[in-house]
Amino acid sequence: MQVVETIKELLVALVPTDVLISWGLTGFIATVFENMPALKFHVSGRMHIGFVIIALNGSNHYAVYLQNGTDTKCLHDEVCFDELGELLDCHIS
pLDDT (tens digit, 9 = 90+) per residue, 13-27? Predict the structure, then answer.
């Protein structure tokens, strides 16, 4: 699951530490979601409490989902790596 480690490294490198802390981010999990390798983690933000799933969609873009209980919402299915932090912050903080 090298892809998942790369997603995690990109997220940590591109999103300022204070923003990651504001999300209440915990528990990175390597998983498969919708047949794509994915990174799943829990957040406790102002606008979203639940899981975030970032999956490599196979075309060098990422699909981003918010999951709360049994409800899963696709935020975007073709996000570039440099847009991940801003997209997530707009929906979590």
Answer: 999 999 999 999 999
Report the run of H or E that residue 85 belongs to, with start and end: helix 84-92
Contact at 8 Å (CB) between 91 and 23? Answer: no
CA of residue 25 relative to chain centroid, distance: 10
Residue 83: HSE in the Cβ half-sphere, 13 Å Cα cutoff: 12
The pTM for the full model equals 0.93
Strand 36-44 with 26-33, pairing: antiparallel
Task: Report the domain count for the chain.
Answer: 1
Give residue-wise pLDDT tens across range 28-55: 999 999 999 999 999 999 999 999 999 9
Domain enclosing residue 87, as ranges: 2-92
